Amino acid sequence: MRNRHDITAGFVPLLDSALLVVAKEKGFAEAQEVALTLVRERSWATIRDRLAVGHFEVAHILAPMPIACNFGLMAPAPRMIVPMALGLGGNAVTVSGPLWREMADAGATDPLDARSSGAALKKVISRRAGDRLRFGIVHPYSGHNYELRYWLSGSGIDPDREIEIMTLPPQDMGDALRSGLIDGYCAGEPWNTFGVLKRGAHLATVKAAIWKSSPEKVLGVNSRWGDSHPDALVALLRALYNASLWCADPANHEELALLLSGPAYINSPAEWLRPSVTGVLKVGRNATQTVSDFFVPHAKAATFPWKSHALWFYTQMVRWGHVDHTAAHQNVAGNTYRPDIYRNALKALGVAMPAASSKVEGALRMETPVGSSGTMTLGPDGFFDGNLFDPDCVDAYIAAQKQA
């Protein structure tokens, strides 16, 4: 008989906590002899702190945060590894109704096209003559911050001089928008849908349009625990992988929305979660749009911890002054994500996995079958501005960003 593993995981009430919730509630953890306890927290800082002091062994966490912890950019901070991603996509850029109307007057027509929405926002900012817009993000070391900045700068907007970016919990974004504290925000679901349904907001674009097939949350693991409990970590990864299969099945989408909406988890109406679970998004008051890749829990190697993802986040940390570019820092960032642990955990299941640990982000313009340990399709991936990120050319990429 296998040993039973007691694991406590922290999470913030968001759509992309789905794999942890489903692993517990649908019996996938139990099937791997994992007694999984989930603890809801309001902020990412608390998640980090409780990982550091050992209250949590693992957590649903912002994809760049483990890298920032390993750089010593936050305290207290545990040494962390990322042996699995918790899906692709899942967030959006939401703006107030008045700002969207200004953007529409400036030529924004497709509410989810990153290029046209960014160009319209640039025109709005130019007309304001120094009156800076405020945008909310959930944490400085978040995909939200780096992708929002990438979108703004790629649209000709200086995120430090022409926009004020402030940090708020995702649950507070909609109310901050309605009060006028902020003009827009980048957050995970269901808080964009909440903004549209309850606060008169409008979606400007989505993560899946800014950087296709990109990670949002990952499984952050206190490396001391992971090193000393390898069998427990393997069991948890298998449970989460099986949960990703369940989440990806359209037949389960209604149950998933209901499950996540419960009081122990997101504690919000299921109608706020159905759009992001199904990909039929509420874009504005009277508009919907289908985005099939808005949140991807399983397809396209959605749970694989690509080193190229970690290294792209590193380049953005360098770009925005969070860390100096050195060979040592680059090595720390790349080694935070651990595809070797992922492969070791799942190989006995016969899971299709990428043969490589990194890829050129933006090289796949369409869905592409790739060589792997089984049948797998990747892409499309890449950035709204058409640029590529080659993880073997980090120096050149960082230098090019400095010139942008």
Automatic annotation (TrEMBL):
Keywords per UniProt: ATP-binding, Cell inner membrane, Cell membrane, Membrane, Nucleotide-binding, Transport
Gene3D superfamilies, per the entry: Periplasmic binding protein-like II
Main location: membrane
InterPro entries reported in the protein's UniProt record: NrtA/CpmA_ABC-bd_dom
An example Gene Ontology molecular-function term: ATP binding
CC terms in the record's Gene Ontology section: endomembrane system
Compartment(s): Endomembrane system
Protein name listed in UniProt: NitT/TauT family transport system ATP-binding protein
Organism: Rhizobium mongolense
